[in-house]
Amino acid sequence: MEKLDRMVREVESQVRRMGAATGKEVLDDRVIDALREVPRHEFVPASMLPLAYENEPLPIGNGQVVPQPYLVALMTDLLRLRSDDVVLEVGTGTGYHAAVLSRLAKKIYSVEINRDMAETAAQRLRRLGYGNVEVCIGNGYFGWRAGAPYDAILVTAATDEIPPRLLDQIGAGGRMVIPVNHSNFGQDLLLVEKGRSGGVSTREIMPVSFAPLVSAVGGYS
């Protein structure tokens, strides 16, 4: 598909341009292949179909978006997924990012707090054949205990701090990519890594802008 190929080329070009800031100038070939395999037009509202393969976020209502392909690719690449990994995604949205992750890992648990959105995404993912994605309804700030420990966690909404429950649910040697608010009213995308002995290190990747993660209510699933 010409539009999909153009989108992937634009993502690769943006990765190169941003490489000095992010430390990532080339994406893993498996991430590129996953972008090519997922039909983004299936995950956008009908009104946005003409823009489905643009390298930009697309609104889906309630302040949420189908994420920009560049950020999907970069965040996925930073997780360094292996084919036998179990992954937690916090914030399902329409399911687009979960579908990309599903091409790279064994099992994806995707937690969405909005019941209607979660049920719609689950139906869409089943229809399209993404059988290794399980959509869970709950407050992702508390993670999803049933699938833990996770080899990788992806958070698609911003927090004031790295949620302790998410840290607890990363296995030794695991990784988390998460946008975190900072004191200057902006956000940074962080790569969080848990060592084999349990120690945690963080690295700032780049400034970003994400909707806030609901954290004040809910329970621990």
Structure description:
The structure is a single chain. The chain has 221 residues and is of the alpha/beta class. The protein has a single domain (2-208), classed as Rossmann fold, CATH 3.40.50. The protein has helices spanning 2-17, 19-22, 29-37, 69-79, 96-102, 115-127, 164-169, and strands spanning 58-61, 64-66, 86-90, 107-112, 133-137, 150-155, 170-181, 187-194, 200-208. A seven-stranded mixed β-sheet has the order 5-4-3-6-7-8-9. The longest helix has 16 residues, at 2-17. The protein is globular, with a radius of gyration of 16 Å. The relative contact order is 0.13. Residues 216-221 have low confidence and may be disordered.
- Distance, first to last CA: 41 Å
Total domains, how many? 1
CATH fold title: Rossmann fold
Question: So, the CATH homologous superfamily?
Answer: Vaccinia Virus protein VP39
Structural class: alpha/beta
Order of neighbouring strands in the sheet with most strands: 5-4-3-6-7-8-9
Helix content: 25-40%
The coarse overall form would be globular
Order of helices and strands: HHHEEHEHEHEEHEEE
Low-pLDDT residue intervals, each spanning 5 or more residues: 216-221
CA radius of gyration: 16 Å
For the record, the CATH class is: Alpha Beta
Task: Count the DSSP helices.
Answer: 7
**Strand percent estimate:** 25-35%
- In CATH, the architecture is 3-Layer(aba) Sandwich
Number of strands: 9
Mean pLDDT: 93
**Major β-sheet, in short?**
7 strands, mixed
